Amino acid sequence: MPILHSIIHRIDKGDGETPARLVPARAELAVSPALDDLLAGLSDAYHAKAKTWGRFAEDDEDAGPFPAALARYQEDGLDFAALTRELAERITPLIDAHLPVGGHFLVIDHRQGEARYLIMALLHHRQGFGISESLEVVPSHQLNLSQMTLAARLDIGQWQGGSASHPYLSWTRDRGGKKLAEGFAEVLGAREQVDATQETRTLLKAFSDYVEREDLPEEASREKTDALLDYASDQASRGEPITLEELSELVDEQQPKAFFDHIRNSDYGLAPEIPPDKRTLTQFRRFTGRAAGVSISFDSHLLGAAVEYDEEQDRLIIKKVPNGLRDQLKRRQD
Fold first, then answer.
1. InterPro entries of this UniProt entry (predicted)?
2. N or C, which end of the chain is more exposed by having fewer CB within 10 Å?
3. Cα dihedral angle (271, 276, 279, 281), rounded to 10 degrees?
């Protein structure tokens, strides 16, 4: 992922009586292997977070100053340091109002294949340990990439191309941080929000309906489920949307348009491209539950075949007991 520009500004926040303060960077970061590794780790952590997807507001007044400043930067009318400093200045009051601590605001303009992205994140630290040259344990501050309460990613090419369907902008949506996410979206000028979790759930519901309608045998159902989840999970890992036509071709090579037509002819309300939610995809692959000393886990495609759920009686019926479990039960009865 070649890095074109990168910078780190510091936002300090002490006790509750002192307002947050921006300490801008004096210059951009130099490209280094460590920075490349940080970008890779940051991207992985970001793609695993719950996010909202959307685009910049079409009306300049609603969009605010950031998209306009970004356009000036793209036209070489504003340098990267000034662009990010202005953004950090508008983010500082958000941190003051909604977060107990400050952090380092990292912004990276980089390429990934033929695409170009702008990724930004407020980074926090955690206390860790290291080993000194004299082989002694010493305290060490480490970046905590998993604690990413404020972050966003923009597909610059899709934005410049004026894509009507591609949700080219995404930002973090942490549980309990609704006001922070809304304020961050306002600073970015983001509108037309798409809920990745809900869109993914709708897609999976459409797929389940399709499999049920086709009355597929267990093996075929499992293969199609694996094809969908493998593709969708790969897109989520790369931060790319799911393309329904492409997914349809993977789900059924013999009838590449069948699943796509099923979605289009039914009232699911899905756009041609939807953002994937990794957590929802993971949960769809297996059903799991634990209560009162009982733990159950099984592949989702087995529901309705080897496993049935009786909603009225609230019972789970396992039609074929695993061999190992059956042997244990028999030994207990002997």
1. Nucleoid_associated_NdpA
2. C
3. 80
Dihedral sign of CA atoms 233, 286, 149, 271 in order: positive
| DSSP symbol at 164 | S
The answer to whether 83 and 69 have CB atoms below 8 angstroms apart is: yes
Distance, CA of 172 to CA of 49 (rounded, Å): 7
Q: Please state the pTM of the whole predicted model.
A: 0.74
What is the CA 188 to chain-centroid distance, rounded?
A: 18
Contact indicator for 52, 185 with CB cutoff of 8 Å = yes
SS3 79: coil
Provide the β-strand partners of residue 129.
139
Report which of 170, 143, 127 is spatially closest to residue 276, judged by C-alpha positions.
170
Check residues 213 and 103 and name the one with the higher pLDDT: 103
- Are residues 307 and 316 in contact, defined by beta-carbon separation less than 8 angstroms? yes
